[in-house]
Amino acid sequence: MSELDTIHLALAALAGAIALNLKLSFRLLGLLKQHGLDGARADALPLGAPVPAVRGRPLVGKGPWREALPAGRPTVLLFLSSKCVKCRAKLAELAALAPLAACAGVELRLVSTEPGWRLRRWLAGSGLDGVTLRVGAKPYRRLNPLLASPAYLFVDEHGALQAGGPIGDDDWLSFAAQMRELDADAAA
């Protein structure tokens, strides 16, 4: 085999590897788009739009089903997962904000599809079990189409979406600061 044949063979192998790489990359991009993981929020709830009405069973007690969005009250819907490491790190912050939000007239609702026993074990001692609603998979997906966690939705008293995103983004930090400021003003 001559040197020229070796170069041609190497170029052919390189071209084949590039073609395979492109094919796999485009296939992966298609899968990411299909599952909403490409960064595009095409299936996310649009700002200003009404948030779907969803009912859930309270985690604590055997009370009747409740609306995730109580009429006439601003609400923060929280989406967490017991299997999410970042979510566990947010529990203390959320537990501290829950009473502050209640004093400010803001409903805080943790919405989950997880089994009650798992949620009770995961939320034990946090105080968040009292604001947790268990819903079915389809209603959960209507509220959180991207299945993001830890995430939130800010919903105004008319049921319209005002903001949403990962817990810890700028809107969330502003909300948390406002709640702490209200608490400091009340204590003064």
UniProtKB/TrEMBL annotation:
TM ranges: 6-24
Highest rank taxon of the organism: Bacteria
InterPro entries listed in its UniProt record: Thioredoxin-like_sf (IPR036249)
Keywords for the protein's UniProt record, in alphabetical order: Membrane, Transmembrane, Transmembrane helix
Name the record gives this protein: Methylamine dehydrogenase accessory protein MauD
Annotated organism of origin: Rugamonas rubra
Organism phylogeny: Bacteria, Pseudomonadati, Pseudomonadota, Betaproteobacteria, Burkholderiales
